[in-house]
């Protein structure tokens, strides 16, 4: 529970910072220059697929190595992964630095007069790519050790410092300063992760000669994990890059903000379920225990996703109006409504992914991600042309149809016990979230005069109403796993007697 709490906090705090800092950055830079920031960050995210799937393989192998009494194998794995990422990051950064200037104007539509800033932004993105690719070895080790509290604390501190730096430069209209602040935060994150990993296990986070045999042993698992990561990056970023190429960076900003907000909420469920991967690896061949763990994870992530996303969809326009102003509200409301409504169900994919990777089935995981990417690409081209930004949002959502296929595959692998009550939860949990969504939709417009905190409070109240309904009748919505909610409530009451 401590790991889950810190993991969720590691997402909630950046979400709060994003809500507070984004309008200030947008207003300070202007929509056109903010589009350059989004373009640079999107480029870093897309090229992060150069990790080639080694992160997932590293988590698996480090989790196994930590169970061995001899730390030498763990040292060899860590040193190999670190050397690999250093080489890949240097090559990727050099390539982006050389090619980036040619993309401005020829590929990306940049407003007149901003070409020089766009080239400099992509040069900073190259440096950011190198630093970002130095972090996964330490993140992988801490994940294998199930120290999500450490990674979350680092994310909270560095995210806060990066946001404050971005705000400082944004109010001065300095787009390159904003990117430099983000770059400095990434460098600080790398240093903190390295220090923390060394503190957690100094015997395994130590110098050793990188081994080609270790890297080759990761090969098959990592190759499929890379294919999966490639398709994930393609599905997440190709739509944004296509908007930048076809509609310009201004429309990219209009679409990216609602998408980023919804993805932040999706990361809450991802943070709560990220323990699945190393835990499934640790459970090994105990399929009944894995089936129970997967079933419970499915129900909890769906409940969390719907309880937040449906009230958010209902309060979309007042939230955007209070947060970013009338222009953004007019251009982005429909996209946010579509994305929030669909992502409430799509969070089931977190449980699928963690379980399949933990079982060592990276091939199936990659095929599911490929299906999602293919559906998303085809629909983005078609619906984006017909309906503009709302069509792109709908394409993003419909691509998550592969989540249902993934659930069926896991259920076939682990047996009927892994899926018992999940479909029922998908049908009943939206009914539990409906009163909260209606309440958020009614109260949010009345709170716009209080700024963004007003609509956010309405969404929070809607989420609280949903969970109050679930807590009152947990077995109605979660079936046999409703006992998890009952046990949690009893634990809270024992700790805080005033709540009895």
Structure description:
This protein is 83% helix and 0% strand. It has helices spanning 2-29, 31-47, 54-66, 72-106, 115-132, 136-144, 148-170, 175-200, 212-217, 219-246, 249-273, 276-283, 287-314, 316-324, 326-346, 348-358, 362-387, 389-398, 402-414, 422-443, 453-472, 474-478, 483-495. Helix 10 packs parallel to helix 17 and helix 17 (362-387) packs antiparallel against helix 18 (389-398). The radius of gyration is 22 Å and the shape is globular.
Task: List the main descriptive attributes of the protein structure presented here.
mainly alpha, 83% helix
- Beta-strand percentage range: under 5%
Main sheet, how many strands, which sense, barrel?
A: none
**Could you give the distance between the termini?**
21 Å
Number of strands: 0
Oligomeric organization of the protein chains: single chain
Radius of gyration, in angstroms, nearest whole number:
22 Å
Topology (SSEs and partners):
Blueprint: H1 2-29, H2 31-47, H3 54-66, H4 72-106, H5 115-132, H6 136-144, H7 148-170, H8 175-200, H9 212-217, H10 219-246, H11 249-273, H12 276-283, H13 287-314, H14 316-324, H15 326-346, H16 348-358, H17 362-387, H18 389-398, H19 402-414, H20 422-443, H21 453-472, H22 474-478, H23 483-495
Helix pairs in contact: 1-2, 1-7, 1-11, 2-5, 2-8, 2-10, 2-11, 3-4, 3-6, 3-10, 3-12, 4-5, 4-6, 5-8, 6-8, 7-8, 10-11, 10-17, 11-13, 11-15, 12-16, 13-15, 13-16, 13-20, 13-21, 14-15, 15-18, 16-19, 17-18, 17-19, 20-21
């Amino acid at each position: 529970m401590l790991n889950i709490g810190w993991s969720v906090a590691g997402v909630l705090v950046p979400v709060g910072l994003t809500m507070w800092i984004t309008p200030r950055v947008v207003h300070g830079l202007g929509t056109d220059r903010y589009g350059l920031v989004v373009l640079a960050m999107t480029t870093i995210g897309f090229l992060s697929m150069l990790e080639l799937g080694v992160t997932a393989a590293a988590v698996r192998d480090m989790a196994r190595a930590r169970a061995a009494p001899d730390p030498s194998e763990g040292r060899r794995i860590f040193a190999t992964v670190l050397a690999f990422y250093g080489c890949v990051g240097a090559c990727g950064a050099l390539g982006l630095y050389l090619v980036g200037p040619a993309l401005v104007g020829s590929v990306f539509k940049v407003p007149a007069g901003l070409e020089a800033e766009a080239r400099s932004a992509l040069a900073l993105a190259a440096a950011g790519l190198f630093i970002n690719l130095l972090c996964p070895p330490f993140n992988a080790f801490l994940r294998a050790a199930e120290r999500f509290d450490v990674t979350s604390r680092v994310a909270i501190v560095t995210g806060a410092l990066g946001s404050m730096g971005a705000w400082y430069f944004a109010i001065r209209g300095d787009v390159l300063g904003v990117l430099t602040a983000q770059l400095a935060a990434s460098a600080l994150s790398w240093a903190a992760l390295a220090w923390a990993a060394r503190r957690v296990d100094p015997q395994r986070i130590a110098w050793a000669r990188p081994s080609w045999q270790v890297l080759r042993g990761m090969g098959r698992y990592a190759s499929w994990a890379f294919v999966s990561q490639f398709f994930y990056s393609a599905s997440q970023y190709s739509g944004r890059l296509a908007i930048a190429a076809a509609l310009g960076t201004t429309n990219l900003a209009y679409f990216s903000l609602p998408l980023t907000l919804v993805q932040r909420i999706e990361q809450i469920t991802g943070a709560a379920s990220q323990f699945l991967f190393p835990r499934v690896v640790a459970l090994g061949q105990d399929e009944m225990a894995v089936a129970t763990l997967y079933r419970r994870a499915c129900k909890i992530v769906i409940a969390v996703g719907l309880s937040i996303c449906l009230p958010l969809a209902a309060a979309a326009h007042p939230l955007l109006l209070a947060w970013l102003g009338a222009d953004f509200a007019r251009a982005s409301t429909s996209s946010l409504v579509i994305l929030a409504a669909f992502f409430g169900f799509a969070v089931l994919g977190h449980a699928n992914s963690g379980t399949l990777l933990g079982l060592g089935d990276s091939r199936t995981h990659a095929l599911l991600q490929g299906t999602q990417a293919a559906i998303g690409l085809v629909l983005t081209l078609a619906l984006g042309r017909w309906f503009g930004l709302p069509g792109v949002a709908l394409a993003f959502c419909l691509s998550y149809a592969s989540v249902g296929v993934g659930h069926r595959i896991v259920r076939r692998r682990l047996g009927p016990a892994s899926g018992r009550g999940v479909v029922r939860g998908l049908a009943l949990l939206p009914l539990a979230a409906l009163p909260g969504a209606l309440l958020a939709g009614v109260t949010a417009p009345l709170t716009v005069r209080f700024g963004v905190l007003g609509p956010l409070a309405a969404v929070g109240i809607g989420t609280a109403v949903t969970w109050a309904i679930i807590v009152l009748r947990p077995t109605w919505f979660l079936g046999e796993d409703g006992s998890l909610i009952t046990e949690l409530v009893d634990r809270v009451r024992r700790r805080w007697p005033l709540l009895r």
